[in-house]
Amino acid sequence: MAVNPVYHQTKDRLLDEMTLITFAKKDPERFGPLYTKYHEQIFRYIYQRVDDQELAFDVTSQVFVKALNNLHKYEYRGVPFSSWLYRIAKSELYQAFRDRKARKTVNVENMHVFEMIEEFDEDDSNENKKKLIDCLANLDYADMQLLELRYFEKRSYREIGEILEITENNAKVKSFRALKKLKNLFVK
Amino acid sequence: MKNLKILVNRERLSKDYVQSKANFGHVLSQVKNLKPPVWKTPWFYGPIAIAVVLISLSVIAFQPVENEKMATLHESNISERSINNNKPIIAIASSFELDTPSNEEIIPPKKAGKINETEHEEIFIYKEVFNDSDNLPSSEFISPKNTAPVKEENTLSPYPNIEGVFTSEIPIDKLCSSTGIVTSKAKVISFSIQYFNGSKDVIEKVRGSSLSKAICNFIRKYNLKSMIFITSIVGLTEKGSHISIPSLNYIPI
Question: Environment class of residue A75 by beta-carbon count within 10 Å: exposed (0-12), middle (13-18) or buried (19+)?
């Protein structure tokens, strides 16, 4: 499975990033490079989960406002800065669902549907595709989120763990269970 | 279907389009315009701090007044005590005058077995005084035996006690003394006592302020070094009203 290149960085790059954060803590205007670096991936993470494009841009903007406002609290713990941003994004998304009555959305590509049907050892028929989409809609949001992160966004278990604030192993187990639940729904 | 919308093959936004929407200046201005939450502002802590200071000051300011009141009360107690020491019978008589309107009412019902000796003695004194109520009662009527100025010291305390012992261990002789339960608030007229009578725990209602000989014998025999409870203590105030007095626990030794 392909990995997210922006997330997986070398130690040197992580240290460079830490230097940028240190400068930004002193002067918010020096947060610019980090904003440029992460804006797109945070936007895509949010846009993947909401229907409205403008809302996605708005929530993305809020994520960076919050990040900049709380940058003094950020501590480097060996994980990329993006995982901290993803956590903020996750919380801002929930707030948008709650306050702005935004509808929880899942973006699925034909390719993902095909991969999943293959995983279930079923025929790649239109009927099966429709059935799988119905099953996805009936899945719990927590399970859906795990499948989304793992199978649609192709994130590593480590990254999933850091975004959802669980361990890598837990992320693996939970993803597997979520897939099993989907399979059970599909086979029924 | 739940509150989950599934979109299939939604058009992917181009990188350039997403980047064109990035506006760091707007984020920066939003951060600058962001007001700290109310609880982080001095406007929130200021009034709280002022309120705390004011409350502390008022507590400190009012405490001396209470202390003064206590001191005054203590002084009045002392002066009362000195008067009592000089003319105890007058004091008792005058207090009794408030309690009872006529001579007849002060004579206790003749249940000699239940009324203890102390009560008899005191009532005798009252009678003596009131029989000569036309004249002012004077020290001539006072027998030195009945004045018992030493015992009066105990009655100064507003808390009930027996011979100056308030709780815990008490020598059996003190417990069974004729003085009984005393308090400055009122004259004890009845109480309940819980003790072991050799076969079981009993609760006995006692009229008067001291223990009867029978109870004392049981306590002496079966309750040494074990706790006895004196509860439901009823006192008669100077104004003639009945009041409930806090309970006592003793370990007779």
Answer: exposed
Range of the domain at A148: 110-187
Q: Are residues A51 and A30 in the same domain?
A: yes
Cβ contacts (< 8 Å) between B15 and chain A: which residues? 40
Q: B104-152 pLDDT, tens per residue?
A: 444 444 444 444 444 444 444 444 444 444 444 444 444 444 444 444 4
Closest Cα of chain B to A93: distance in Å?
14
The complex's ipTM?
0.79
Residue B24 · residue A63 · CB < 8 Å: no
Where is the domain boundary, A42, A73, A99? A99
* CATH code of residue A176: 1.20.140.160
Q: Is residue B251 part of a domain?
A: yes
CA distances from B82 to A82, B10, B177, B238 (A): 86, 101, 24, 18
Q: What is the pLDDT of residue B239?
A: 84
Instruction: Specify if A129 maps to a domain.
Output: yes
Structure-block tokens of residue A177: 């269970």
Place of tokens 């361990």: A167
List of chain B residues whose C-beta atoms are within 8 Å of the C-beta of residue A39: 18-19, 22
> Which residues of chain B carry a pLDDT beneath 50?
1, 87-155
CA distance A97 to chain B (A): 11
Please report whether residue A5 resides in a domain: no
How far separated are the first and last CA of chain A, in Å rounded?
Answer: 28
